[in-house]
Amino acid sequence: MCCNATCWLTAGSIIGALLAILGGILIPVGDIIIKGEIDKQAVLEEGTLAYENWIVPGSPVFRQFWFFHVLNPADIMNGSKPKLQQRGPYTYRVRYSPKHNVTQNYNNNTVTFFQPNEAIFESSMSIGPEEDEYTVLNLAVAAAATLVSEDVHWLMNRWIKQSNASLFQSRSVKEILWGYEDAFLQLVPNIIYRGNMTGVFYPYNGTYDGPYVVYNGKKDISKVNMITRYQKQSTLSYWKNDYCDMINGTDASSFPPFVDKNAPLYFFASEICRSIFADFQKEYTLKGITLYRFVLPKRAFASPHVNPDNQCFCTDTVVSYNCSLEGLLDLRGCQGGKPIFLTLPHFLFATSYILDTLEGLSPNIEEHETYVDVEPITGFTMHFAKRLQVNVMFNRTEQVDIMSNLQGEFMFPIVWLNETAVIGEDSANLFKSSVTTPMTVLKAMQILFLCLGCILFVPCSITLCVRRCRGKKA
């Protein structure tokens, strides 16, 4: 039993040393514990935190649309520059149904599924009803002109007149987005344009995207949610090039854990028929959770002269002016030849030449860039904004009366969308209680033990040394 100061000081030094050692041990051990728990919860398997948010998003996903209302349709057909006015948003809830036909493939640690395509109109988040009408480009007429050779343009001109069609028409929001039966297409043979229906996203509701095959992370967590096959193929066939046809990354709903801010994030989007990447921009806090923001950079859609990797995405030297235009993605290869071109909204990052052919557009990064906000430890996506614009390419056609007086070639915008979601309060609190709080407590214990150990060990040890020195002198 300690009965003097020396005894107590010795005990304090020993206890302090043990606490400091324990705090030091907790640092690597704590990291192992955290990694083990993250590896467990990030697996796409029933019962994990990742699976619950993967099978159906834990937060509502909304897709907002803005339409480009044409103010001077008659003047355009007589050679004037188009004047456009943005109208919107019209908002739909999407991704609200669970993934379909989910099958775990335990032989190769993958999971197969279909993604349902459904949209519910949200009137409270829209400026008007789906029945609102706007003057927009006639999709069928503009597209058909590029699908046939000039030798039969006279025949297309005849069908246009018979159906009383025009280059511009008034259509409802619902028709423009999800489809309508077109009188002009009823006269066009299926070999040119299949079916009588057209619309920017026709068909969508009631369809399925996939099948997808992704790694479930069971044996290798660094591959979790990485797409290995899409529509039963390990590569695409749109671009006729190994690099551009790669299916690379996840679907952006989540990424492998322990995200490196110095490396780009790769993800595949079937809407744009390619894989693409995002670069780290900043670190910030959302609802008490630290996130990394990755943004779609300018070089992703840059011309091959700026980014040589994009050479295989340049499919037509005439349309893209010897591949020198920036900010465009030609989707004709995966749209059955239809002249659909994808850009960022208001032609953000696109060559100024395109903007000069139109009036009423004003690109800005804050409203029109695409980004994904990822929690870096788990790789879970907590907030994202996917912003894209659908455009139709057409030009003056001498043998088609309604297109014979156009000023030249157009990259004509129809609609742009913002698909977005942000983690809700309940989901954020659940994440913090399941992941953030335990990590914080563990780190606090590490610091507490180290500090207490040092507070006890250092003064007790120094005092003991002083007392021993004095005792020897005495």
Rg from Cα: 30 Å
Q: Sum up the overall morphology in one term.
A: elongated
Q: Biggest sheet, in brief?
A: 11 strands, antiparallel
Average pLDDT rating: 87
| Cα-to-Cα separation, first versus last residue | 26 Å
Tell me how many strands there are: 19
Please identify the oligomeric state. single chain
Task: Write the element-wise H/E pattern from the N-terminal end onward.
Answer: HHEHEEEEEHHEHEEEEEEEEEHHEEEH
H/I helix tally:
9
What is the percentage of strand-forming residues?
25-35%
How much helix, percentage-wise, in residues?
Answer: 25-40%
Question: Any idea how many domains?
Answer: 2
Structural category is: alpha+beta
Task: Report low-confidence residues grouped into runs of 5 or more.
Answer: none
Q: If you had to describe this structure to a student in words, what would you say it looks like?
A:
With 474 residues, this protein is an alpha+beta fold. It has nine helices and 19 strands. It has two domains: 311 residues, no CATH class; 46 residues. Strands 1, 2, 5, 12, 13, 14, 15, 16, 17, 18 and 19 form an eleven-stranded antiparallel sheet that branches. It has a four-stranded antiparallel sheet with strand order 3-4-10-11, with no helix packed on it. Strands 6-7 form a two-stranded antiparallel sheet. It is elongated. The mean pLDDT is 87.
